[in-house]
Design goal:
Layout: E1 2-4, E2 18-22, E3 25-30, E4 42-51, E5 80-87, E6 92-98, E7 108-112, E8 115-116, E9 126-127, H1 131-142
Parallel strand pairs: 3-4
Antiparallel strand pairs: 1-4, 2-3, 2-7, 4-5, 5-6, 6-9, 7-8
Length: 145
């Protein structure tokens, strides 16, 4: 598996806040102050993406972040893109989707004039079943509470 920090490409189109839908409600992933931090119960603290590198690329390859291209050039066909998000509520979320249905903006929606706009998430993040990751994330967060 290869790893990248290119999971959303911050500054994606739009001026409003971006969010992900989870079983615990919306998680703010980009704060453009509209509607703003306080309007979300949960917030993304960290994130990472895992994928199977395309032939000829190594697991150390970092995509250059061409938004329109997404993972098309770097991920092997027929494999999944695994997005992980660490929430400030102590939960590790994941969204796994086929490469051909994944982009940097997959799983995210944008508010428009402070309300949900036309661009809503087409995929939801689920609570990760990785119990070790869940326990470790809670342990790390506890140090800061």
């Amino acid at each position: 598996m290869a790893v990248t920090k290119m999971w959303f490409t911050y500054g994606a189109a739009g001026r409003e806040d971006w969010y992900a839908e989870t079983p615990y409600g919306e998680v703010q992933v980009q704060d453009n102050e509209y509607p703003g931090f306080s309007d979300f119960q949960n917030h993304e603290i960290a994130d990472v993406v895992f994928y199977t590198a395309a032939e000829g690329l190594t697991d150390k390859y970092e995509p250059e972040g061409i938004t329109a291209e997404g993972y098309a050039r770097v991920a092997k066909g027929g494999t999944g893109i695994h997005k992980y998000m660490l929430g400030d509520n102590g939960v590790v979320y994941e969204m796994i989707a086929p490469k051909d249905q994944s982009s940097f903006s997959s799983g995210f929606g944008e508010y428009d004039d402070g309300m949900k706009g036309n661009y809503t998430p087409t995929q939801k993040f689920e609570v990760s079943n990785d119990e070790t990751a869940q326990a470790k994330w809670k342990e790390i967060l506890k140090k800061y509470q």
